[in-house]
Description:
This protein is an alpha/beta fold. Helix content is 43%, strand content 10%. It has three domains: 1-63, Alpha-Beta Plaits; 67-353, no CATH class; 366-461, Electron transport complex subunit B, putative Fe-S cluster (3-methyladenine DNA Glycosylase II, Chain A, domain 3), CATH 1.10.15.40. The longest helix has 21 residues, at 417-437. α8 (198-205) links the parallel β8 (189-195) and β9 (217-220). The mean pLDDT is 89. It is built from 18 helices and twelve strands.
Amino acid sequence: MAKGYIHSVRFVRSKCRGCVTCVKACPTDAIRVRNGKAELIPSRCIDCGECIRRCVYHAVEGVSDKLEQIQQYQYNIVLPPPSLYAQFPADISEEVIRGGLSHLGFDEIFDVSVASEYVSLEIADYIKNYTGGRKPLISCTCPAVLRLIQVKFPELIKQVVPVLPPMEAAAIYVKKEAMERLKLDASQIGVWFLAPCPSKDANIRQSVDVVHTELSGSIAISEIYGKLMRSIGSVKESKKITASSSYGMGWGCYGGELAAIGVKKGLAVHGIENVYDVLEQISMNKMPDVDYVECSACSGGCIGGPLTAENKFVAEKNLKLRLAKMREYEPADRLEAMRQTMNCEGFPKSGAYVKKLVPRPMMQLDDDIMEAMKKFERMEEVLNSLPGLDCGACGAPSCQALAEDIVQGKATEIDCIYRLRASVKKLAQGMLELAKQIPISNDSMDLSDNGEEQDADKRSN
């Protein structure tokens, strides 16, 4: 990895076949196939995990912590997101799942969905008081989307709502509350998020929107799922459980954030390609009548994350059945339902915790502006000489990406199979023309005569 960028996506070279599927799937052109193996360009990667999802050879993995690491702390708090509960059928209650988490060694359970309710009200308040700027406002909760905006749409940074994402808000609250209640030092308390995707893990290791995280790490849902399944049914009371209403729980699926916020002129977009398209439209100011856009890089929302265990359609069904059950016992009014479970005294407001989102340059041809301009002109020349088919056979996702690689000295024009074929054809024609110009010597004539005599002798024998 390049210095300055920490990612939670890892390529396993021994499994890679060089098929360029991940190269074509990446929304920021962050992958190349070189010498038959996929390589990551750290400055471009947004940790969306699309490469993990697409690779049929399992040559791309998400990086996360192991369950055994909780033993480093005296007291451990786990933050399960709604997407965790979506992995289980609705007839397995949340209490049973939480009991399984307790059995795995966690001392306290705080549902991220509780924080989602507080964040929902804060976002609603921000939308209500927003005046004078461009619309729509954009959700702050998916780290992959925030990184995509940094890399591809820096002009939209001002439209991102400056509010803490739920997992970070939850971590700040539980760490402080546990320190005061248990009289423990911060270093003695472990706070763990159960991650449905690599972007959440990457944002803990190197946050783009939080000044300082209180999370000790993240454990992939796929990593803990098997152990949790075996633990379910083991009766063990958690020392402390904090749970939410259906509106906080609904954040796990697309549209759930909008429902909890209560915004009427909103748009829920999920899937990285769809998010990219919508951000392009917003960049061109084609959605001024929309107040708020909920964006999730994963198809279906967090339930469709590449580090989950269940099929996203099954997970969606599980979560919606679970929400329907919860709403049978809740007030019909959204705010009243949420306030019944919002009992966290001193829950943090975003304020000083939020870090200003800044652009992240993706394509920097050179530090020197004059040299960069020369390289750009050269890149245009190279691009015009390429076929424009974007086939990916060269190991780059497009002809434009290859042109940039050539200018940067990381590839050559004959990496393009069509340019290579043209070069070979030209070379062959040149050799043929050269052969025609070679004079026939007496030695070659003698050899030819000797060969004819030998053939005649063989026929006579």
